[in-house]
Amino acid sequence: MDISLICASFDTPVGHAPCASFFRNGHVRLLPGTGYMSFSTYGNSALFAPPPGRKHGSMVNISDVMSGYGGVVRAKHLAAAGVSNLQLRNALSRGQLSRIARGVYALDGADPTLRAIRSLPAEPACVSAAELAGLWIVRRPVEPHVAVPHSRKYPGFHCHRTASPPTLLDSVVLALRCLPELEALAIAESAIALKRVSMSAVRARLGGRNDARERAVLGQVVPHSQSLLECLARYHLRLAGFHVESQVSIPGMGHIDLMVDGRLGIEADGAEFHMDKASFEEDRRRWNVTTRLGVPTLVVSYSLVKFRPAEFVALVRETLRSLDQAA
Fold it and tell me: What is the pLDDT of residues 73-131, one digit of tens each?
């Protein structure tokens, strides 16, 4: 690794004590097997690397660098990735990108929330970081959640004070501590189910005496959960006192989303998540198998479970009562 490149991004001479301390204190590190460097000093939170196949002395593709940051990049990151001032000026003159704040540049079409956050000396955190990472979000926050290294507040933003820009694991833990139970559960469950973080890593961060609530929420996570709808339905049914199992194996069918009290299946309506013909046909095949095998199954929609959970729970309760009467 060329330490001079890293120190240059901090305007720090090579060998100067602060620059050396970045490595000694673990603020700058190589990510194993990637060639990426990760800064944990504020304002240097993104991962970056020369574009694949770049040779020494060749020109960096500025669009590739910016895409690696979600399309919104600080000038110091561009410089550290090898983008020259001339390249930056040329890209601006061509309209390839725009300056949205001092030292901050964005591609057209970059996420508006990320543009707003990085216009500040801040980074996405908590639910906003989870949303940008593609995790399951129950409710988009009215104010973006950001991480800042100081106690200053910014109007229109929910600020979390952190010593360094949060990793995804940090944001999952922040969400568990910050959000209502169901919203926190959805983020934690998706992060684990999508293998973005491990259950053990999250649990290790919740060992404090004041983390009892967070540990209880984490205890509800189903690592093999398949969707936000499944997570929401399971939560509401368990809260109502039902015994609920996830992804139960049915011979000839595969796995049913939920099994309530061991006798009533719950399947998510595939139209909410996939509209292609093959998926539509597969859903019908699965429902036909449960009917043939005598497994009564309710097919529920996302809108029912999310926006009318009491109606959903009542439907399940009435169906179970009907099954009892038929027996």
Answer: 999 999 999 999 999 999 999 999 999 999 999 999 999 999 999 999 999 999 999 99
67 within some domain: no
Tell me whether residue 305 is in a domain.
yes
CA dist., res. 39 & res. 164, Å (int): 9
For residue range 122-133, list pLDDT tens digits in order: 999 999 999 999
Cβ-defined contacts of 49-53 (< 8 Å, 24+): 49/81, 50/81, 50/82
Structural domain tally of the chain?
2
CA 227 – CA 119 distance, rounded (Å): 33
Q: Are residues 217 and 128 in the same domain?
A: yes
Question: DSSP characters for 98-135?
Answer: EEEETTEEE-TT--HHHHHHHTSS-EE-HHHHHHHTT-
30: enclosing H helix or E strand: strand 28-30
Task: Give the whole-angstrom CA distance, residue 14 versus residue 100.
Answer: 31
Domain boundaries, position 266: 228-326
The residues, ordered by sequence, that sit 6+ positions from 274 with a Cβ below 8 Å of its Cβ are 280
Mapping DSSP to helix (H, G, I), strand (E, B) and coil, where does residue 297 land? strand
Q: How confident is the model at residue 200 (pLDDT cuts 50, 70, 90)?
A: very high
Relative to beta strand 145-148, strand 158-161 is parallel
Residue 209 is encoded by which pair of tokens?
């005496």
Residues 218 and 237 both lie in one domain? no
